[in-house]
Inverse folding.
């Protein structure tokens, strides 16, 4: 009923304009700058930015008012490792632009050229509260690099791309070593050599002469931001030995490393904390799906957080792939992490503020003054899978909650048009 009323209010309200001011009143606002929510909060938004969050504060006169009726309000969810916009159906090759299966491109591969704003999976993620994400490539034929990931913003209209070449990804282990001659040792040798070649190239770029390096020029140029420290190097690894190598690489080559995966990261928790290496993990991983996951356990996130490691969550939707049901899967994983010892606030940060910080997005993930006005009003606890957004705002503008699933419902069961969908079909 609450969702129905919210939708009716949206339809009846005048269309927002660029500089419109909105006040969300009577909210329980998790600003993500403090562990406790601001009770009976008034959140003022102007021109796409948060202006203020105050308890029991009066709304400015003459502004549009949205009554949250005591419900939880959070920043929009930030998926730190997804493939949304790159793949529609994993089994349909012409809809899958995640990776380079063959050819020369490695580090130079850039997924931003393939992002589809019209993917039917974008509205699904947005309707479940995801407003920003890192869309990254899968393991490529040119080992060990996958290519550059892109930051995306799930606006209702306009391009999906927010920032191209936001991180460089490399995958090691988990079966990818076959493309590097059969051994993960070769992957580490190739990675270290590539970074050494990139550093030498950056110090004195050759104008001409015989090729004496393994990397092609496009790949070696693509690694220059990594060597300058302006682009993080995301290493998709799970095995403890690979995590040890990642820590050593960060120290030896002076590059900013982010671990993606980290099924056995708990075994190196203190070393990761000392090296200031964040981990983007799947908190639902608890059984050895492969030999890199032998040490997987459900309290991985809790152990890492207690040791002082910066953590964020990315969960494979229904264990299928990283663009389906992204928001619900991520919330479900965060709830499982809480059930296994992670403090609630840390789990909520792991799907909002922390991913933004890991990828250097300055104005996302909080409700602090000056932050982007991407926020969600929930009908219940956002870490409860049965909960759902009442309203999602991006740039301070209410976004449509319509998806392909709601369109099918409305077409074939119009008498149920106002019913909320079950979580798996939002």
């Amino acid at each position: 009923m609450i969702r129905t009323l919210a939708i009716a209010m949206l339809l009846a309200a005048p269309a927002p304009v660029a500089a419109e001011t909105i006040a969300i009143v009577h909210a329980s606002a998790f600003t993500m700058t403090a562990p406790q929510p601001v009770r009976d909060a008034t959140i003022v938004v102007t021109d796409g930015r948060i202006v203020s969050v105050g308890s029991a504060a009066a709304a400015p006169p003459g502004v549009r008012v949205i009554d949250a009726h005591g419900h939880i309000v959070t920043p929009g969810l930030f998926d730190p490792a997804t493939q949304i916009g790159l793949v529609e159906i994993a089994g349909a090759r012409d809809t899958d632009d995640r990776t380079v299966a063959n050819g020369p491109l490695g580090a130079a591969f850039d997924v931003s050229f393939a992002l589809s704003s019209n993917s039917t999976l974008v509205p699904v993620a947005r309707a479940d509260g995801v407003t920003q994400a890192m869309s990254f490539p899968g393991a490529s034929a040119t080992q060990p690099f996958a290519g550059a990931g892109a930051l995306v913003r799930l606006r209702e209209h306009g391009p999906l791309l927010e920032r191209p070449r936001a991180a460089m990804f490399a995958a090691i282990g988990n079966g990818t070593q076959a493309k590097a001659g059969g051994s993960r040792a070769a992957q580490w040798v190739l990675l270290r050599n590539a970074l050494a070649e990139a550093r030498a190239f950056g110090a004195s770029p050759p104008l001409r002469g015989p090729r004496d390096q393994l990397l092609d020029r496009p790949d070696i140029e693509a690694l220059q931001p990594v060597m300058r420290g302006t682009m993080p190097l995301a290493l998709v690894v799970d095995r403890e030995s690979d995590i040890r190598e990642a820590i050593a690489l960060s120290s030896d080559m002076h590059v900013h490393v982010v671990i993606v995966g980290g099924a056995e990261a708990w075994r190196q928790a203190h070393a990761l904390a000392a090296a200031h290496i964040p981990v983007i993990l799947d908190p639902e991983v608890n059984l050895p799906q492969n030999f890199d996951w032998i040490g997987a356990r459900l309290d991985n996130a809790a152990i890492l957080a207690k040791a002082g490691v910066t953590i964020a969550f990315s969960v494979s939707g229904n264990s299928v792939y990283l663009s389906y049901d992204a928001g619900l899967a991520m919330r479900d994983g965060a709830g499982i992490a809480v059930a296994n010892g992670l403090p609630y606030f840390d789990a909520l940060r792991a799907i909002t503020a922390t991913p933004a910080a890991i990828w250097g997005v300055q104005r996302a993930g909080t409700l602090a003054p000056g932050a982007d006005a991407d926020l969600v009003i929930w009908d219940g606890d956002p870490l409860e899978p049965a909960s759902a957004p009442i309203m999602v705002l991006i740039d301070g503008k209410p976004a449509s909650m319509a998806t392909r699933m709601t369109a099918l419902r409305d077409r074939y069961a119009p008498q149920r048009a106002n019913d909320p969908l079950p979580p798996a079909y939002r």
Q: What stands out?
A: The chain has two domains: 2-75+368-425, 77-358. The two ends are 16 Å apart (CA to CA). The domain at 2-75+368-425 is CATH 2.30.40.10 (Urease, subunit C; domain 1). Residues 184-203 form the longest helix (20 residues).
